[in-house]
Amino acid sequence: MPPLPAFDPHSFQNTALALTVSFILGTLIGFERQYRQRTAGLRTNVLVAVGAAAFTTTGMHVLGGEGAIRIMSYIVSGIGFLGAGVIMKDGTHVRGLNTAATLWCSAAVGACAGAGFEAEAGLLTLFVLAGNTLLRPLVNYINRKPIDERVTEACYRVHVVCDPAVAADVRERLYAELEKANYPLREIEILSEGDDEMELAAVLVPTTAAPNELDAVVQALERWDEVASCAWTVSTTT
């Protein structure tokens, strides 16, 4: 068994500096996340940054620069498993992507500090904080704007309300009208079902569509006696 390496005050000083910088910078990132009540908050981001710094400094002390690079490559892939734990799917919406990306950046901050690039780690922290704070007004502005179906790739649905007894026939007619209009169909889903009526929704393949063409499809379906009502809606793709 090879002897354990002797205590090196210089290496210890470098490690202490890297961990301290990672702790401070991870606290800054985590504070913003905790303030907004995100899944991965203060402690999680601090631990990710400090852990990444510890792994990187250890690899550097054992194998030099090559060891640090090797450890960083494992950090980049390994942090993905932690990020996957904060991503949740709620219906058609996916939540937690920004939190997972922040964790990934916290690991990058720690890796930079662990490799001895404290200034770069600080600069990266500023960019992470700017992305999570300064860009929020711009994101909110974009999200509040109405969807322009002429230029936006979106998810279109054609809704049909009919009697459950004729649902099969209405489904075939819905498919035929959309095929005639050259709009590819992803699926036809049942949104609601009762004793007196059923609502079907034909989900089109995400694309751009012409409102007048979808209006023509709706008008053609409304002329059919078995269709109680018909309309089309548009939403952003996820």
Automatic annotation (TrEMBL):
Where, per UniProt, does this protein localize?
Cell membrane
Please report the stretch or stretches of sequence annotated as the MgtC/SapB/SrpB/YhiD N-terminal domain: 19-140
The regions listed as transmembrane in this protein's record are: 12-31, 43-63, 69-88, 100-117
Membrane topology designation: Multi-pass membrane protein
Residue intervals of the MgtC-like C-terminal domain: 156-232
What is the first-listed, main subcellular location in coarse terms?
membrane
Q: Which GO terms describe its cellular component?
A: plasma membrane
Keywords from UniProt, A to Z, are:
Cell membrane, Membrane, Transmembrane, Transmembrane helix
The name this protein carries in UniProt is Putative Mg(2+) transport ATPase
